[in-house]
């Protein structure tokens, strides 16, 4: 009998492999062969370690990926169904509605994003998740520059982390003195290009019109889930992903229309190549459904 840590390591490696192959046919026989177990033993081990059925987990992850594609791209529903290995749009619609209690078309059209049924990728080594404070912000003004870029859906996180550093360097070098507090507003929109289906606008701002070239931006009043971050640049690259894939589903929060807002404490030299640490608040616009304690924590 294999020791528990051996089984956990096997399942950890298998989870990563599954995540990389969700757009490929994944018969349980093939998955078992990859793990080096019999199909029966793998299913039992997977359930014991994760609490989930292997086949159900794969299907839920595909539906989760499909749901994100529905919200962030304009790909036809049939194309999304085929991409994630459903044999027809009818089968996909039936499975999607059973999982999310809404049809794919209605999910795409919804004015808010219900993350409650999203199945995040399992991470057996994740020890903690960011905890939000709910806050109600009045309308306020910011002043800044907006940068635009596009990329494939699967590369949004990595491309965003790489390219925004260039935007920050460009923005801050034009301001003297460097403001102590800056904001970044991120907005995702479905694009029209087949290979770069997500259009992203990234606006870097300050609270005062420090230069003539800055554009005035009015932020409407609303409720936000506010997450505080102190840590390395490397850790921050996955911070928003944790919020969207783990925290929002766990808390059953509904994301309303609006920008994600990052509020950075900036020092001279921040966002150059040498920066390794960040301190910021990450605000997600949400509907009023959850109040975990202090509303003014951020």
UniProtKB/TrEMBL annotation:
Q: Which GO terms describe its molecular function?
A: DNA-binding transcription factor activity; sequence-specific DNA binding
Q: Which domain of life is it from?
A: Bacteria
Q: Which SUPFAM superfamilies match?
A: Homeodomain-like (SSF46689), Probable bacterial effector-binding domain (SSF55136)
**Pfam families assigned:** GyrI-like (PF06445), HTH_18 (PF12833)
Q: Which UniProt keywords apply?
A: DNA-binding, Transcription, Transcription regulation
Q: Which InterPro entries match?
A: AraC_E-bd, GyrI-like, Homeodomain-like_sf, HTH_AraC, HTH_AraC-typ_CS, MarA-like, Reg_factor_effector_dom_sf
Keyword Iron-sulfur appears in the UniProt entry: no
Q: In what residue span(s) does the HTH araC/xylS-type domain sit?
A: 12-110
Q: Which SMART domains does its entry note?
A: AraC_E_bind, HTH_ARAC
Q: What is this protein called?
A: AraC family transcriptional regulator
What organism does this protein naturally occur in? Enterobacillus tribolii
């Amino acid at each position: 009998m294999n020791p528990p840590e051996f089984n956990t390591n096997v399942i950890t490696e298998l989870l990563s492999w599954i995540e990389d192959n969700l757009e490929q046919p994944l018969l349980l026989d093939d998955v078992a062969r990859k793990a080096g177990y019999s199909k029966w033993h793998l299913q039992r081990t997977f359930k014991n370690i994760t609490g989930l059925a292997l086949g159900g987990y794969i299907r839920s992850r595909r539906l989760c990926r499909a749901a994100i594609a529905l919200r962030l791209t304009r790909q036809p529903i049939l194309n999304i169904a085929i991409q994630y290995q459903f044999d027809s749009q009818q089968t996909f619609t039936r499975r999607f509605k059973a999982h999310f209690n809404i049809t794919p078309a209605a999910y795409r059209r919804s004015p808010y994003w219900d993350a409650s049924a999203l199945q995040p990728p399992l991470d057996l080594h994740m020890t903690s998740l960011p905890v939000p404070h709910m806050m109600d912000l009045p309308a306020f003004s910011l002043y800044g520059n907006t940068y635009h870029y596009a990329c494939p859906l699967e590369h949004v996180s990595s491309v965003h982390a790489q390219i925004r550093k260039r935007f920050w360097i460009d923005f801050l070098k034009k301001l003297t003195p460097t403001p102590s507090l800056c904001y970044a507003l991120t907005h995702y929109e479905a694009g029209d290009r087949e290979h770069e289906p997500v259009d992203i606008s990234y606006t870097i701002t300050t609270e005062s019109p420090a230069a003539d070239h800055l554009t005035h931006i009015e932020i409407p009043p609303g409720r936000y889930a506010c997450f505080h971050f102190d840590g390395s640049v490397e850790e921050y690259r996955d911070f928003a992903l944790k919020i969207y894939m783990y925290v929002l589903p766990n808390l059953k929060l509904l994301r309303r229309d609006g920008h994600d807002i990052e509020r950075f404490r900036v020092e001279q030299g921040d966002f150059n190549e040498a920066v390794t640490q960040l301190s910021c608040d990450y605000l997600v616009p949400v509907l009023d459904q959850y109040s975990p304690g202090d509303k003014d924590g951020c």
